[in-house]
Amino acid sequence: MADISRHSSGMTDHPDAAEMRERYARMTGGRKVEIMEGLVMLTGLYLAISPWVVHFSSTYPNMMVNDLVLGLALAAIGWGMVLFPERALGLGWMLIPVGIWLIISPWVATANHSAPKGIIWSNAVVGALACALGAVTAAMSLKSRGSRGAAKGTRTL
């Protein structure tokens, strides 16, 4: 038989084990982004079903499509934050223009450039919430990038 040396196959001897442990702890331990993930997903899901909740799905089809598509997009961003927290947190800034569009869309996307109060209130509240969530996630992303750069001895913008 050939002489096969016995090497330990454990990860403790791996040269990148400490870095992998630290990255895993940073991703899972004490994640402040968990609340943001849920709020972004819930905001998107409410927006997607709002045409049926506020009862304008048949009377304002443009707004129905607008809210359904943007709601699913917000929910997808929230789901991306769940699956890929370090990467998708940087997408949080995208919530700000979506929120601004939601606030002005009842006057822009309707045929006669006016909408009932229910649509206006629903979109204004969801748009303001999306803007606030976008600002918070963008700040969290910048903060996490800054702390990672400081930990490595480099500065990132």
Structure description:
It is a single chain. With 157 residues, the chain is mainly α. It has one domain. Helices cover 70% and strands 0% of the residues. It is built from 6 helices and no strands. α2 runs antiparallel to α6, α3 runs antiparallel to α5 and α5 packs antiparallel against α6. The longest helix has 36 residues. The model has no long low-confidence stretch (mean pLDDT 83).
Short overview:
Helix content is 70%, strand content 0%. The chain is mostly helical and 157 residues long. The N and C termini lie far apart (58 Å).
Question: Can you give keywords for this protein?
Answer:
mainly alpha
List the helices and strands and how they pair.
Layout: H1 17-28, H2 33-53, H3 61-83, H4 85-88, H5 95-108, H6 117-152
Helix pairs in contact: 2-3, 2-6, 3-5, 5-6
Give the N-to-C terminal Cα separation. Answer: 58 Å
DSSP summary, beta strand count: 0
| Secondary-structure element series | HHHHHH
Quick one: overall form? elongated
